[in-house]
Amino acid sequence: MKPRLIFLGFVSLLLAYAQAPQSPVTAITTAAEEKALLDRTCGACHSQRAKAAGLEPAQRLTLDALDTAHVEKNPERWETVVRKLRAGMMPPAGIPRPRPEVFESAIQYLENELDGNAVTNLPPPGLHRLNRTEYTNAVHDLLAVEIDPAKFLPSDDSTRGFDNVAAALGLSPALLEGYTSAASKISRLAIGDVTTPTQAVYRVPEDTSQDYHIEGMPFGTRGGMIVKHEFPADGDYAIKITPISKGNMGDTSPFGEILGEKLEFLLDGARFKVFDWDKERLREDGTFNFKFPAKAGLHTVVVTFIATNYAPGNDLDQHFLRSTIETGGLPGFKFFPHVGKIRIDGPENAKGASDTASRRKIFVCRPTAAAQEAACAKQIIEKLARQAFRRPVTPEDTEALMSFYQQGRNEVGQALSPASAFDHGIELALRRILADPEFVFRKEAEPADLKPGERYRISDLELASRLSFFLWSTIPDEELLNLASQNKLHEPDVLEKQVRRMLSDERSNQLVLNFAGQWLQLRALRTQTPVTAEFPDFDDNLRAAMQKETELFVDSIVHEDRSVIDLLDGDYTFLNERLAKHYGIPNVYGSYFRRVTLAPEFDMRRGLLGKASLMTVSSQPGRTSAVQRGKTVMQVFLGVEPPSPPPNVPPLKDAGNSVHGGHKPTMREQMEMHRKVEPCASCHKIMDPIGFSLENFDAIGQWRADDGGSPIDPTGYLVDGTKIDGVAGLRKALLRYSPEFVRVAAEKLLIYALGRGTEYYDMPLVRSIVHEAEKNQYRFSSLVLGVVKSPQFQMNEKLISGTGFQPVALATEPRP
Three-state secondary structure along 468-493? Predict the structure, then answer.
């Protein structure tokens, strides 16, 4: 009886509010008008009366308790209201909405009150550890050494959608040991003083197809793999090439039956060896082995097949696009052999490093006599320390680092030549620099003469670091450091010029890979493994192409300084032959990507919604997911989170071969059965219409007209009552909310730039950035400049208590 009474009470409340006198106003300009509108539109659900009657959850926001005349008293709650209204999430379907102009003015009233009474809260200075990507880039820019960070450091935790947020970048004893060990190994690699042979293994993803040319390989080749390998010293190396095995029932024989294949090994484009696939695999383990000389440094290693047979077969059968799927041994059906992994061992007969990019970067001078060693060592060390610490070097820094150099120089005594002993001293000093907390952490110190709570502008050197880690994910270059040292970087004209220079630099590719890669969830694509039986054409080639397409699309927005709204409706994309075949787009050949303007019949591929990457990461391995896709669109495009599911909700059951109305149920029919009862229905009606509009894309983003033989129905209604029909309808609806999408982009940029989550008190800044960007058609650079010029980016607040930066002892002894 109680549920019935609650229901009747709810209906009566709705009737009461629906029958209330309608306001004749055409725009909200006063607190009283705002209050009346909220009571009439939202009061049935968000009121003390509804909560007391048990009609709504106790945790739901009650608006009648808030004072529209003093919005500044509850800014956090009002910002929640604004976010929901801007995203079109409220009022829910079935509740009458005010006219659009009245609705917009009501939101603007709240925003104006919030912005007019905004208080800028600034974070205090503190420790901000470099994440794994930043550490890798910093090592590269400092030493010209390529490292695999996974060999040294664990992966970073992510919060607020990004892995560079300071609060999540802790320092455990294991991580402390990892940094110290990494400093030792990297310094030896950079100097080239390697006495112990190393071993590196590179594997081809198991689902990689190698029937055709792979991007980056020499023309006239197919399959294989290409790697960038850092050779630690001059010497002799061995390469071991292992084919992919058939793997069926323990079968370790090589995959592929086509005979006469030639496998070639190239180093930096020069052919070193050609193997006869059928005759030279003589070892018991079925591998190819070859020894070769190599100089220290980064080299390109290629193992690939010479393409001699691209002619189509005469058989009527055609295997799947994923070439490593066994098709049951059909008569006359043969496969090309594939490379599985390569292993590089060495060096043998190591001779140190004669000339590498790293040594050229480090040794800016070479002593010709013993009397010159100390001065040269000081010059080298001070240059490295200045770049690593991102500031001028003090005499105390020099003295401490020179003691490390001297110990390394002296401990070898007469055992090495003077040149080798000098190198060993530099290596030990470099090891100390890489283990120093000022390299591993970004330090921002408090001025000593300020009162607690007082705000201050960060130094130009700290600003240079903030700027470089924001746009490049690495340390500042010489131009930034020089301007910062001269105290010129904070000047508005100078700062804007540097931002534009940095955005045009190739290092800003890191902004695409790290910022967009996390905001758009592209990183999740690498772990996406669709069910092979359902999607036998899916392979790693397609997975990589999906990711690169989206990265190149975002890159065009960044480096062509286009409007970020083009992310919603851009009429072009980037394709290679593999992805074009997946999309059904003709006349695209080869492994290399090129820009393609989308014809009207491929309108579904416009903008981010048309990218297979987004559709794949928002699906289940064996099927689409209306809920997941709806949630992803809400998060990425509208910046709102759907309601959390109630506890103990059973997962959607696999329909299998069950029958629904004489046919296998579609995804829509399965979801309708799932959400027949509350509390499922109220949540699903928010997300599901969005997901259903994308049902023409299957779980790997391929276009389809039916689901299991039943026609797909992509129609539905959004929460705001908008009728949508497929991806084109959803895109059109999102374009109506494009200002909100720009706000989301600005907010995500702010989180990424500051390395902290945004709070309600940051939203006036976000809105001001968007308003300024509107004057420049929302160009990407205008959002970046808005972030960089903000007080949040350029200022800090003195701690109420404490002393700010506390050094962490990563290396306190002369020898780590």
Answer: HHHHCCCCCCHHHHHHHHCCCCCCHH
pLDDT value of residue 2: 45
- SS3 per-residue string spanning 790-811: CHHHHEEECCCCCCCCCCCCCC
DSSP conformation letters of 164-179: --GGG----HHHHHHH
**Backbone phi, psi, residue 533, to 5°:** -65, -30
Bond prior to 347 in cis (omega within 30° of 0): yes
Q: How many CA atoms lie within 13 A of 177 on its CB side?
A: 3
Distances (CA, A) of 401 to 179, 181, 349: 18, 18, 32
Exposure b/e, 633-654, CB count within 10 A at least 16 = b: bbbbbbbbebeeeeeeeeebee
H or E segment to which residue 342 belongs = strand 339-348
Q: Which of 686, 708, 677, 684 is nearest to 695 (CA)?
A: 708
Angstrom distance (rounded) from CA 85 to CA 108: 11
Structure tokens at 809: 């002892």
Q: Are 537 and 578 in contact (CB under 8 A)?
A: no
pLDDT of residue 283: 58
The residues with which 275 forms a beta bridge, in sequence order, are 263
* Residue closest to 555 by CA, chosen among 544, 571, 566, 543: 566
Cα(first)–Cα(last) distance of the chain, in Å? 74
d(CA 577, CA 591): 6
Tell me how many degrees the CA angle 712-718-721 measures, rounded to the nearest 5.
120
Question: Residue 83 in contact with residue 640, Cβ under 8 Å?
Answer: yes
Q: What is the pLDDT of residue 411?
A: 82
Instruction: Please enumerate in sequence order all residues whose Cβ is within 8 A of that of 306, keeping only pairs 6 or more positions apart, or say none.
Output: 220, 221, 261, 262, 263, 264, 274
Task: Report CA torsion sign: 348, 350, 354, 360.
Answer: positive
Q: Which amino acid is at 287?
A: T
CA dihedral of residues 461, 467, 470, 475 (deg, nearest 10): -50
Phi, psi of 268 (to 5 degrees): 55, 40
Structure tokens at 1: 């009886």
Q: What is the pLDDT of residue 50?
A: 61
Q: Helix axis angle, 763-774 relative to 780-788, nearest 10°?
A: 140
H/E segment holding residue 738: helix 738-754
Contact between 321 and 539 under an 8 Å Cβ cutoff? The reply is yes
Rg over alpha carbons for the chain, rounded to the nearest Å, is 31
Residue 381 C-beta-side C-alpha neighbours within 13 Å: 31
Three-point CA angle 137, 147, 428, nearest 5°? 95
CA distance 276 to 657: 49
State how far the Cα of 715 lies from the Cα of 727, in Å rounded to an integer.
9
**Which pairing describes strands 339-348 and 441-443: parallel, antiparallel, or unpaired?**
unpaired
Number of H helices, E strands in the chain: 29, 18
Supply 788's token pair: 């960089």
Largest CA distance in the chain: 99
Residue ranges, the chain, pLDDT below 70: 1-25, 49-60, 93, 194, 247-252, 281-284, 309-318, 326-333, 413-415, 644-664, 667-684, 800-816
Residues 358 and 297: beta-carbon distance below 8 Å: yes
Kindly give, in sequence order, each residue whose CB lies less than 8 Å from that of residue 449, ignoring residues fewer than 6 positions away. Answer: none
Show the tokens assigned to 81: 């209201």
Question: Which tokens in the block code for residue 462?
Answer: 């700290």
Is 288 in a helix, a strand, or coil? strand
